[in-house]
Amino acid sequence: MFDPADYSELRVTESPIPGLFVIDLVINGDNRGWFKENYQAAKLEALGLPHFNVVQNNFSYNAEKGVTRGLHAEPWEKYISVANGRVFGAWVDLRKGATFGRTFTTEINPGKAVFVSRGIANSYQALDANITYAYLVNAHWSPDAQYTLINLFDPELNIAWPIDKSQAIVSDKDANHPLLRDITPLEF
């Protein structure tokens, strides 16, 4: 369960996937609720987050617990957070190199954000109903954007989804992504 009191220090930590950072945000709360400074470039860059030129802010609303989206490697960087509730995030490095296929997972709540570099496939599963998932990006969406997609439930990835595949709410498109063994590593 999310407790705002647990988030009193701004921290940036690189995950085992190079270029994937977990950010612990400061939450200030009282009897009315809480407030957070979700993204402040100067403070985050001073702690090691790469420079990130935000050009678009997107929201994804998830009505039901178990909504599962991804895995998508998009041609831009993302700064991910939630406005409320919790999601289980999972990432796979699809870039050519020694970490190709490496996975990382963490729970994202209002006190935790994640920065995802280009070439890392992103996904999440709603752990609560009525989740607002938000992400800043450094390139505009385009119907011509080239995505690399990978199957959420590929056994080779060994992602321990909290809500089993049989109970997850997944789009037909996401359910039919290729397996890791069929992915050509991305070069940048």
Total helical elements: 2
In angstroms, what is the radius of gyration?
16 Å
Please identify the structural class as seen in this structure: mainly beta
The run of helices and strands is EEEEHEEEEEEEEEH
* Total beta-strand segments: 13
CATH fold-type name: Jelly Rolls
Report the portion of residues in β strands.
Answer: 35-45%
Query: Which architecture per CATH?
Result: Sandwich
In spatial order, strands of the major sheet run 1-2-10-7-12-5
CATH uppermost class: Mainly Beta
Q: Any idea what the shape is?
A: globular
Question: Mind summarizing the main beta sheet?
Answer: 6 strands, antiparallel
CATH homologous superfamily placement: Jelly Rolls
Average pLDDT over all residues: 95
Structurally, the number of domains stands at 1
> What proportion of the residues is helical, as a percent range?
under 10%
Sequence stretches where pLDDT stays below 50 over 5 or more residues: none
Instruction: Kindly report how far apart the N and C termini lie.
Output: 39 Å
How does this structure look, described?
- The protein has helices spanning 41-46, 172-175, and strands at residues 11-14, 20-24, 27-30, 33-36, 56-62, 68-73, 78-84, 87-93, 103-108, 112-116, 120-126, 131-137, 148-149.
- The protein has 188 residues and is mainly beta.
- The protein has a single domain (4-182), classed as Jelly Rolls, CATH 2.60.120.
- The strands form three sheets. The chain has a six-stranded antiparallel β-sheet with strand order 1-2-10-7-12-5, with no helix packed on it.
Give the arrangement of secondary structure elements:
Layout: E1 11-14, E2 20-24, E3 27-30, E4 33-36, H1 41-46, E5 56-62, E6 68-73, E7 78-84, E8 87-93, E9 103-108, E10 112-116, E11 120-126, E12 131-137, E13 148-149, H2 172-175
Antiparallel strand pairs: 1-2, 2-10, 3-4, 5-12, 6-11, 6-13, 7-10, 7-12, 8-9, 8-11
